[in-house]
Design brief:
Polyamine Oxidase, Chain A, domain 2; 18 helices; disordered N terminus; seven-stranded mixed sheet; globular; 22 strands; five-stranded parallel sheet; FAD/NAD(P)-binding domain; protoporphyrinogen ix oxidase, domain 3; alpha+beta; 3 domains
């Protein structure tokens, strides 16, 4: 729906006395919130006037698809976990199911940089830890003492059950040893969260492992049960790829949501500044596209921004809630996309790429060999790599120029992969404070945030700062926020 039609629909709903809902933020969470609110309101027979405020001149947030000749580039996430169904289900609703495609799992192999050499991850990993001893013993990733310590894992009793949180480092090292932590769990989690395992919350980042241990009275015993169940389900069903994406890029999901917004008015260049109380419920103060001050009254508000941005918005309304939100730390990151001509590349790529432990002291945290993981994203005579830098290891990375960042990446690719080819093109994507850190105490912080939100009926949060950082998690958060707003609106009537 174009802006004129959206405005007409919005005015029509307003004239019928429909409640106004403001969605702040046009990333995947905010778009999903508007989409599901429209859908749920229609199903309930309710008129709702929705306005989405986006500070940028585009939708999608960190999801951004670009083309460079025959190469398809993802500036942010390039896929989502197939085991979390929310993204797949949304694609089906948006008539995008025909474009869903899985990762090339026939060549799925990931390497870890250890002692300057790429060594293969062992088979049988579950949520960043091994579930079988023998694949680790056959490999060269762990030392003999590290392997012997892992062999004791089945006999390690569970930590005393407690309601408080554990750090990931403590949780993993006590059960599997320091080498499993340093050479497996830490680089895998750093590639996803860009965070320090010393401060990450086990309950927030590895909830499945914590739940398994609490259910079975021992982590190794519980993982054995879980692995047997997964094997049974896999044998009874068609094998599912680990990662899923869209043939034409994840930007298609953003565009699909935009096209399916029937009555939501999207306003670009609107930077929300504050949320305060109003006789209708709330008032959102913002700068519009011309940088003039403006405000909107609303019966309900969904804030789908990073938690630190939500904290600034809510400071005038609730200082305690703002303080809790402001306590969720974020890191910045950079993605460097490199395209090569295959004839000059100099080597075959067997696997999905490599991850880099903190102890290797590199700028790179990971590198995806996109041409293997998703071959359709590069031409047959080309090779595409995605390098990841930043996070907690390099918090001042964004102070460096693009040229310096690319130089660091190319130097380390030469050291790690012996890659001396010159890329035919380079793209640098900077993401400032977009990686949330689920620190120890994060679950308790969420409980405090929920308690404060209950004192503000009709105010909901969505985004990657709370219950998961992946695309399916963000979609679920948007859907949950929409459901919460609809309950509030029904209760007002």
């Amino acid at each position: 729906m174009n802006a004129a039609n959206a405005s007409a629909a919005d005015m029509s709903a307003a004239n019928r006395g429909a409640p106004r809902v403001i969605v702040v933020g046009g990333g995947i969470s905010g778009l999903a919130a508007a989409y599901f609110l429209e859908k749920q309101a229609q199903r309930a027979g309710m008129d709702v006037s929705i306005r989405l405020l986006e500070s940028d001149d585009r939708l999608g947030g960190v999801i951004r698809t670009e083309h460079c000749g025959e190469y398809l580039l993802e500036a942010g996430p390039d896929s989502f976990l197939a085991m979390k169904p929310a993204a797949i289900e949304l694609c089906k609703e948006l008539n995008l199911a025909g474009g869903l495609i899985g990762s090339n799992d026939a060549q799925r192999k990931t390497y870890v940089l250890q002692g300057g050499k790429l060594r293969g991850l062992p088979d049988g990993l579950m949520f960043v830890v091994p579930t079988r001893v023998w694949p680790v013993f056959r490999g060269d990733l762990l030392s003999l003492s590290g392997k012997m310590r892992l062999a004791l894992a089945p006999f390690i009793p569970p930590l005393e059950k407690k309601s408080s949180d554990w750090g990931v480092a403590d949780f993993i090292a006590r059960r599997f040893g320091s080498e499993v932590l340093e050479r497996l769990a830490e680089p895998l989690l750093a590639a996803v969260y860009g965070a320090e395992v010393d401060t990450l919350s086990a309950r927030a980042v590895l909830p499945q492992l914590v739940a398994i241990e609490e259910k079975y009275g021992g982590l190794w015993r519980g993982m054995s049960h879980a692995r047997a169940q997964m094997k049974s389900r896999a044998s009874a069903a068609r094998p599912q790829p680990l990662f899923m994406t869209l043939q034409n890029g994840l930007g298609e999901m953003v565009e699909g949501l935009r096209k399916n917004l029937r009555s939501t008015e999207v306003r670009f260049g609107c930077e929300a500044r504050a949320i305060v109380r109003d006789e209708r419920g709330y008032r959102i103060e913002y700068k519009d596209g011309s940088q003039s001050s403006a405000s909107e009254a609303a019966s309900a508000v969904i804030i789908a921004t990073p938690a630190h941005a939500a904290a600034k918005l809510l400071q005038p309304l609730d200082a305690d809630l703002a303080s809790q939100l402001g306590g969720i730390r974020y890191h910045s990151s950079v993605i460097v996309a490199l395209g090569y001509e295959r004839r000059t590349f100099g080597r075959e790529l067997e696997g999905f790429g490599f991850i880099v432990p903190r102890k290797e002291a590199k700028c790179l945290t990971a590198c995806t060999w996109v041409s293997t993981k998703f071959p359709f994203r590069s031409p047959s005579d080309g090779v595409l790599l995605r390098c990841f830098l930043g996070g907690s290891r390099n918090p001042r990375l964004l102070e460096r120029s693009d040229e310096q960042i690319v130089s660091d990446a190319l130097r380390e690719l030469e050291e790690i992969m012996q890659l001396r080819a010159t890329p035919s093109f380079v793209r640098v994507y900077r993401w400032e404070n977009r990686m949330p850190q689920y620190d120890v105490g994060h679950p308790a912080r969420l409980e405090s945030i929920d308690a404060r939100l209950k004192t503000h009926p009709g105010l909901c949060l969505a985004g990657n700062g709370y219950l998961g950082i992946g695309i399916p998690d963000c979609i679920q958060s948007g859907a949950a926020a929409a459901a919460g707003v609809l309950v509030h609106l029904k209760n007002r009537n």
